[in-house]
Amino acid sequence: MRDLLNRIRTAFLAILVVLSAAMAFIRLMSVQIVNGDDLFNESEYTSIYTQPIKASRGQIVDYKGVPIVANKVGFKIILDASKFPEDNKEGNEVLLEALKLLKDNDLEWKDTMPITKEEPYEFEDDTSEEQQNNLKELVGVNIYATAQNCIDKLIDDYDIAKGGYSEEEQRTLAGIRYEMLHRDFSLSNTFTLCDDVPLETVTKVKELSIRLKGLDIAEDAVREIAVGDVIPQEIGAVGPIYAEEYSELKEKGYAMNDYVGKSGIESAMEDKLRGEDGEKTITVTDGQIMSANVTKEPKGGNTVKLTVNNEYQRDVQAILENFIAQLSSRGDYSSVRCGAVVVLDVKDNSVLALATCPTYNLFDYNEDYEKIANEKDSPLLNRATHGLYRPGSTFKTITATAGLNEGIITGNSTYHCEQKFKFYDITVGCTGYHGDIAVPQALRVSCNIFFYELARHLGIDKLSEYAALYGFGQHSGIETGDSAGAFANPDTFNELGADWTVGQVLQAGIGQSETSCTPLQMAVQASTIANQGVRYTPHLVDSLYDYAMTEKISTHEPDIAAEIKLNNDYVYDYITEGMILASSNGFPGQYSLSDLGFDVAIKTGTPQNWRDGKELTDTAFVGFAPAYDPQIAFAGMVEGGEFSKYMIRSLIQAYYKEYPENGSCYGMDSINFLPDRPRNSKSVLNDDNESDENENEGEEED
Asked: Residues near 689 by Cβ (< 8 Å), separated by ≥ 6?
């Protein structure tokens, strides 16, 4: 009996366990299968997104801290994906009303889709195959699709044809829908319709945003030009990211909506100017924003302090422009319009001035780029850094360096000049009869035959070696980039597909033949002489500060690009002596370099250059001052002109005017060519002025 009761009890407990397990299983099935979709859908309605908070771009200031490019608080019209209609028809209405608002307020939305604005739709003429393929991939058509196919796909995808819109409206909507795709419009990325919106428009947008879902105003740091006339080519510009750039920039953390430096300092210092974006975290539940909190504050970009002093740059620009204007007012030089001047600090080749003519103003550049781009003589070209010229007789200082340092000549060695020099089957000439002449006097009178003889003894390999040590045929290393130029030797001729002949060594020795360089390279050449053979890398950036300029982050340290090992310690004594002698040649009183309170070392040249299908004689100079305690090195080139050396006195006087802490010079009350003197108020060139002392280099003669 007891055994029976135990079996009954055990069976009962087993049944209870089985029932409990069954109920648990049923409950689990209910949760996972029956109610699983409801629970999953409920979880889908809550999402978290992050939105970047753009950092303010760093400023660009001159050496005294005066802003050249800064920022101002501005507003932009945006579309916010969290509020923008999901229904295409409703969204299209919002877009058309928003664009009408822009038009009514003289604002512009830029359509970048590279397809014509009217039927028959074709790809724009300047659209590359890569751009076409990127567009097709973005729109979702095959590689063989036409422009019309792309438009049709956009019209179909966004129900544009259903709205009863005109052809123009349909193309407009297709363009903006493409741009929204292109700029990755989403909860993580707002879409900017228009930048830098005036306050009166901000008010209208705020009023309309109640009705136009997704349309809103966002505060923005707007890039502002504070000074437009100071080295505009080197300051550069910022612009939107292009599709072909995005794949690379995306890896660096850029969004498609970002702006990036496109040229000049804006591009070269992009990593420092950019700053670090902040972050906003957005929680969306059932399509409603539940919270939007800043989880990371943005950090403004670094302020870039340049080596250029605004006022000295303006002085040098005015000196160049007024010289060209006054020279061109003479009949013989009526076609003279272009040139460049460079001034460097010899201590480390800090750029003090980069003047180029013609030039432009950054304000005008932003207003009407096309007009400037199409102007005569290419003002967008910085001739100081990218203009390539034969250096002519200014190169003779390099030939002299090689001869003295290699022991081919000493300071007292002479060659004999009888105006003609026969070399194999060619005869070359000199513009003077100089008899027996040594290197200082040869530099003073620019004797061609002395340097022909020296070049012949040196040979092209040695000339090439020293040209390279001075920086010819290579980029200078300046942050914003420059042209490398070339030195006339067999390698250069081979690259040009030309035959090298033995007589070319003579022309190479006087800066002719296929030698080409920039005025910046010529100024570096002068600085290298002033520094006894040490060549510094020229630079525009002095230092970096935090955004508010309260803390210095780094300072540019002098960078030695090359150093000429001196075999003879007298090399630069004789070259400097010759350049000082040259500073007394043919200067009328108002341009004299002999009464400044110190000696000036210069070398001038009148090289022949081919331009516009004809041979023209340019005018050039290099030099440094004071000769025995150098502070500045300089170079200049004027296309098709003469007398460029007459600018040197004004360059030096203006330097001491703007940098009084570095000393002074005499005659400060007689600075020529400065902005306060009206152009052409008085001719600076008298008809009886001398030409550049026997400087015509002379090509080979039969």
From this structure: 586, 588, 643
